[in-house]
């Protein structure tokens, strides 16, 4: 073959495009960065009778996942600017722990989410059956449990059926974050691996815990598994429990649709979870196709006047006799009257949102009484918030939780610390904890997906003329 020959032209006249990617590896914290005396040892997976590892089974530092995968080759030079890449998650040939000396701690913090018990179960099973870790402890009631409660000894037999239960068997709470008490308790109990499961507030706390452990130069690996039913954690493809939440949200929408079409001028109003992002509302709208209007935090709306919600619903009721409105809990917060006594932050430091569902139901009733006095009208309001987040994870989320847990274990054993395990473009990666704690996965109202919502519902864009 002549290497200097020009590339062949396609039959339609297109010239092939070749390019090289300038990839920059995002470096993870590594135990030997501050504990250089640590010596690696061979992984026990080599002798584990469940495995028959080949060379391809193990990953190295050169196995990476590129964060950005979509480009316009006519306008973008892939070789000019660096493209972020992350270490790929999975087992390594060498580890920095003697498994028989590992004391692992697992804690769940913040609100509930489908799949919490699956993550706990798989952390226990993976540590025990893959690496032979003898001592695994559950921390009760969130961060405060480290210093105020006795830990629970966990084993494979105890957690056997936990994946079939909603909620968290370890219990959870918000607040209670006292950095020095937590790290002191970790030291005193002899934990040398800590697995933290929680959302954005929990992740911010995890960063502080890791930094304090780093300051004290302790041989303790810290890994986080991002939990938020809202799917608002950035960088990763999605957070666990999200698909289960969308599935359950559809059931609420179906009920609202039945209620609405069973009454003259009926409106079914459904409030779904989504404090700062509208992913559940958006995906439930697209999958149900019964929704007439989807209101999310990223797309401000208004009620009165041309192009407003009331005008749209007036037309929809005149045409169809009923309508279904889905609203994310964080939408419309700027329009709801807030008293001076209303709390601004919860114990985790997250904003406290007023009830947009109750407020909107009242506004709809006032609008109809004002503009259609004497005509029949009904609003049926459904708030499935706690039903959605407390259910057992579906099959997809259960599998996802398993892969997250095992990815975290492999990373900690390999000497990585201060990281989050999660999928990027369908492949599992390790991401620095401090980076993911400050990112948000917001709905892009300029992309094709939101345009699809608009075309399905035919709702206004709520942009004032």
TrEMBL record:
Residue numbers binding ATP: 111, 174-175, 199-202
Subcellular location: Cytoplasm
BP GO annotations: fructose 6-phosphate metabolic process
Active site: 230 (proton acceptor)
Gene Ontology molecular function terms on file: 6-phosphofructokinase activity; ATP binding; metal ion binding
Keywords for the protein's UniProt record, in alphabetical order: Allosteric enzyme, ATP-binding, Cytoplasm, Glycolysis, Kinase, Magnesium, Metal-binding, Nucleotide-binding, Transferase
Site (Important for substrate specificity): 201
Cofactor(s) it depends on: Mg(2+)
Protein's organism: Lactuca virosa
Domain Phosphofructokinase, residue spans: 103-410
GO CC terms of this entry: cytoplasm
Record EC number: 2.7.1.11
Name of the featured protein: ATP-dependent 6-phosphofructokinase
Catalytic activity: beta-D-fructose 6-phosphate + ATP = beta-D-fructose 1,6-bisphosphate + ADP + H(+)
Known pathway: Carbohydrate degradation; glycolysis; D-glyceraldehyde 3-phosphate and glycerone phosphate from D-glucose: step 3/4
Gene: PFK
HAMAP family for this protein: Phosphofructokinase_II_X
Top-level class of the enzyme under EC nomenclature: transferase
Binding residue positions for Mg(2+): 200
Record comment: activity regulation: Allosterically activated by AMP.
Residue sites binding substrate per the record: 228-230, 273-275, 329, 386-389
